[in-house]
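Sample entry (103 residues):
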Amino acid sequence: SSGINAEYGEQKLKDCVSDIQPWLTTNFLQLNPTKTEVLILSPRGDTGVESMNLFEESGPTLVTGAAKNLGVYFDSKLSMDNHVAAVVRSCKATLVNLWRIAG
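Predicted structure, serialized as tokens:
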């Protein structure tokens, strides 16, 4: 059942966060629970999971449909639609600014 899979996945993510915390601390880094997002990749795109409790000290971590990592937008189906739309918006804004300068 998907509830069991969601609980299992949430526990595995918690374990992963716990495992990397010592490395982050050693390297003077930290995760920001208020900015952390969870992106679940699924062929259907909709997992039915809205949030997970990954951090003991903060509220629930939102499960998002699209997330940005290293400047690239990923969505739950890996379609790149969000990334392409963001690049097009950026290019349009740059062209408008160039048009104003040249004007």
